[in-house]
Amino acid sequence: MSVSNGQLANATTFNNAFVSKSSDSTVTGTITQENASVLKEISTPATPVSGYGKIYFKADGKLYQMNDAGVESEVGSGAGGGGGWTSDSSLSLADGDQIATSSTIQLQKWRVRAATSAGAVLSVVPFATTPTQDGTTIRLVCDSDENFVSIENYDASGGCILNGSPAQLFKYHLIDLMWDATMQRWIEISRNF
Fold first, then answer.
1. Which residue, of 6, 41, 106, 149, is most buried by count of CB atoms within 10 Å of its CB?
2. What CA–CA distances, in Å, run from 91 to 3, 13, 106, 168?
């Protein structure tokens, strides 16, 4: 697409030459815009090609992003975006269990308790899902005095690196663990006990 020498310079000529309104266009330079962008609300689009991402509004009025693996997440739902902690219902856990966390939500809070008063020691890889975002943080809060939950220190892929081992959670105890994608470990960042 180009404008020929001697061709009339008007909006139609430039739009046709540089920005297609009916097909995909690629811009390799910087786009500077002094007004708001207008984006139509759409359904979830197809996965972008490798090395690219997509950003779009959906019918719920929320802004979403999609990476080249097809993982969709709400913009602003993670750390730093003002989304806050996402909470799920209480989990009743047994020895060796894993918690099925979200791979895309960066701040997650889970209320936990053991299924029996004998307590529960979670799997040495306590979370069943590997996060897609470095820095994903999980907060576990125990809601039972008798049915404690224990997390082991386990220095291997998917394991937890704790400030004291094991971490036994009783009622009102909480522990925060952050995913480090480079080290492939959950690292304890705080606890209140």
1. 149
2. 64, 62, 19, 16
- In angstroms, the CA 35 to CA 45 distance is 25
What single string gives the DSSP state of each residue in 38-82?
---B----PPPPTT--EEEE-TTS-EEEE-TT--EEETTSSTTTT
Q: Are strands 149-151 and 167-169 parallel, antiparallel or unpaired?
A: antiparallel
Q: Which fold has domain 86-191?
A: Jelly Rolls (2.60.120)
pTM score of the predicted model: 0.59
**Nearest-5° angle of CA 61, CA 57, CA 38?**
100
The domain ranges of the chain are 86-191
Q: What is the pLDDT along the chain (193 residues), one digit of tens a residue?
A: 455 666 666 666 666 666 555 667 677 777 777 778 888 899 999 998 888 888 888 888 888 888 888 888 877 654 444 457 777 678 999 999 999 888 888 899 999 999 999 999 999 999 988 887 889 999 999 999 999 999 999 999 999 999 987 999 999 999 999 999 999 999 999 999 9
Strands 107-114 and 137-142: parallel
What is the CA 39 to chain-centroid distance, rounded? Answer: 23
End-to-end CA distance of the chain: 65
